[in-house]
Known about the structure:
Keywords: ATP-binding, DNA damage, DNA repair, Exonuclease, Helicase, Hydrolase, Nuclease, Nucleotide-binding. This is Putative RecB family exonuclease. This protein is α+β, with helices and mostly antiparallel strands. The chain has one domain (20-113, 124-198). 48% of the residues lie in helices and 17% in strands. The radius of gyration is 19 Å and the shape is globular. Iron/sulfur cluster binds at residues 7, 9-10, 221-223, 226-227, 230, 232-233, 236, 238-239.
Amino acid sequence: MSEFENCPQLYKYRVIDQLPQPPSLDAERGTLVHTILHDLFENAPSDRTPQSAIELLPSRWQAQMAAKPELMEMVTNEKEWFDRAESLLRTYFTLEDPQSFEATHRELHLENDFSDDIYLHGYVDRLDVAPTGEVRIVDYKTGKAPKPGWEEKALFQLRVYALLYFKTHNVLPRLLQLIYLGDGKVVKSTPTLTDLASTEKVLKRVASDIFASIDKDYWPPKPSRLCDWCYFKTICPAHTS
Ligand code: SF4
């Protein structure tokens, strides 16, 4: 949904038309690091160390390439590739101590029917339930933290997860935590019921805008700095007309 807010034309290419896109190396590196942080919690607490995480790199990368053979040609310097992923994993250990807690859920699927025609779902990287019952929702990012003033926008996705969790469990999460491995920063927020109510309002408003765009087949491009990374720039009316 935030993709529609960023650029309706891009949303159409990706979600409505489902045009294929080649894999992006940044996204694939993110997948690799996410897989390792997921699997790390299979180990006993004493074995959740930087070294044991780094040792998972070759096997998890092999599995990723087996699922997407085109990656083999995209990564030409495997040492450099592993070095970068290793650096992100080492940064993780400067921000959290995975020996000190249990990850209650990883890749937790949350879903809800907000109305007859609005269904929303998503996968939370990690959701921890403390012995006291308090809930923490955690999302790993392999990029850098947003600049000051942009944290609220970045937190929107976690507020949606908090809303989905609240709707299905009737428990208000205590803490939302975005962990940025690109620059070793953490953005935290304590959601309130008012925050969740306004998140739901935004979701319903965006859903209604999307339905209106579908009805009118109206997908205005919204040029921004995002265009420099947009795979569809060569066919986008904002850049071709
Ligand atoms: S190039 Fe820019 S304006 Fe065009 S679809 Fe991509 S993000 Fe939107």
